[in-house]
């Protein structure tokens, strides 16, 4: 593959665009000869930053997006159980691409809710230590610093959970806008109104009122970290 292949991260520009007609930017193969395709107008979010990959299709072939370490492109591999390849496509070909819209909205809701819980945790004096936004296992982890002693007992942790819930509910009720911009270092920074800002390459809802069923299910201490488990979904689109 030659240098200079351009790819636009459409999934970062519009979370809610889930189908597009685009063009093949590049093709290639892995060490085991499995074909892959990269599209110029890329609507597929690859796994990364604690967010799972989109489920998607190129034409009728179900594909799995992944970031290619060599080229930096998001490339599409046919699902193993498909029995089909993308080998007939060539650079410049017109292709129809789409992602599972319901799953996209779920991932965006979980990721945005994770930022919101991070903001609520910071307000308690905690420092972000890690995050995962996968359905069924979403959690934010913090180092509690000087507040560790105040989380010693189950009742203390439940009180902390209630404080988190109050802050989260207030921000959703205020319907803070969710925006993204480039900082001076060229990083994409996602903002929840004036409440929170963090570098992030994930998909997000338009504003916090898009979030539904944001539930903090547990606050636990694990190996000196505060682990906040949660669930969230996206409100039905109007």
Automatic annotation (TrEMBL):
<dbReference type="InterPro" id="IPR018163">
    <property type="entry name" value="Thr/Ala-tRNA-synth_IIc_edit"/>
</dbReference>
<dbReference type="InterPro" id="IPR051335">
    <property type="entry name" value="Alanyl-tRNA_Editing_Enzymes"/>
</dbReference>
<dbReference type="Pfam" id="PF07973">
    <property type="entry name" value="tRNA_SAD"/>
</dbReference>
<feature type="domain" description="Threonyl/alanyl tRNA synthetase SAD">
    <location>
        <begin position="187"/>
        <end position="229"/>
    </location>
</feature>
<dbReference type="InterPro" id="IPR012947">
    <property type="entry name" value="tRNA_SAD"/>
</dbReference>
<dbReference type="InterPro" id="IPR009000">
    <property type="entry name" value="Transl_B-barrel_sf"/>
</dbReference>
<protein>
    <submittedName>
        <fullName>Alanyl-tRNA synthetase</fullName>
    </submittedName>
</protein>
